[in-house]
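Section 4.2 – Deliverable D4.2 (structural model, holo form)

The reporting period included a commitment to supply a predicted holo structure for the target in complex with manganese (II) ion. Inputs used:
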Amino acid sequence: MKIHEYQAKELFAEYGIPTPAQILARTPEEAEAAARSLGGGCVVKAQIHAGGRGKAGGVKLAKTPEEARAAAAAMLGKPLVTKQSGPAGSLVRKVLVTACADIEKEFYLSLTMDMERACPVIVASAAGGTEIEELAKTDPGAIARIPVAPETGFRPYHGYEAARALGLPEAQKKPLTAILSGLYRLFTEKDCSLAEINPLVLTKDGRLLALDAKVNFDDNGLFRHPELAELRDPGEEDPDEARAKEHGLSYVSLGGDIGCLVNGAGLAMATLDMIKALGGEPANFLDVGGSATAGKVTAAFEIILSSPSVKAILVNIFGGIMKCDIIAEGIVEAAKAVSIRVPLVVRLQGTHAQAGRQILAGSGLAIIPADGFREAVEKAVAASKGACAE
Ligand code: GDP
Ligand code: MN
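Output (structure tokens):
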């Protein structure tokens, strides 16, 4: 789960991480009043879940309350398209007005999970402000990774090592360690998958400040944190992913044109790999799970078909606990409820596969059957490109 910058900075404040004074505004008038109470000069920042706002016009320095009002008016009620938002952008409903910092230098600092070492890792770079993904490609040596063993937790020496990696002056060692200590507590106590400060800045008067804040929570830990539920902003979530969640389906939008309905996360990922290997583009990841009912399958089809870019659907089922005849019935039910307007390739293998194929064959639906994995994907890729798959 993602949250907004203003919410992440409120959490930072709870954990003793210094941030500039801030006021949330929903209208240009509120932004003007906020700027006035912050003393005039300020920064107006679009609150959307995607990063990269600075380069996209979503972060504006304002010298006067009037300028803050104009900056807010230019952002509010309009979609902001950033490198991370997707081509449609995200609608800006709120702006954050913050006190303006005098920047001496910008740094990158975050905590995330190191999946290989199975522990939290501090990521630090003196090249702050830029996107870390970009930096990882162009200059990976400029990024320090400092693992923190869960047995010991965060210790001051982690902070000193990070201060060295950032090239901070001696006087900043202790303040940086305090910031990292708070960030580590936040990261572990709230089950975060990412707690990022980009940029962390050294101000001209020698203070460290978190100018931006990004906190992502591990969805698997959310049940332990009822207090985080109110931070959710449904307006920022992918509507298809939200709908899938309601039906207990594991779904991720991907932007290609082959809709996928698969059981089991491993098979689903293998299916995406095979589609890419054979020159296609998956529209989604969808694991219907081991206990799919006809209703779940119908919901899955509805979600896949709601995307106008889907040009073919591939159903790839390996029946284990899940029986193929149940899936076949689900497909027939779904076809009654929603009109399947694109070619549908179906591969059923495993438990009750024969019975499932018979149900489909007797349904009168225009289904392109496939036995082999590769064959099924080849047919789906061909269909997505408008070719007639026999
Ligand atoms: P992002 O582009 O979505 O990551 O938004 P950020 O909050 O990181 O802001 C982008 C950039 O705007 C920062 O890297 C800074 O260079 C600049 N910026 C943000 N806040 C301030 C501020 O208070 N003072 C100054 N001078 N620049 C700021
Ligand atoms: Mn940033």
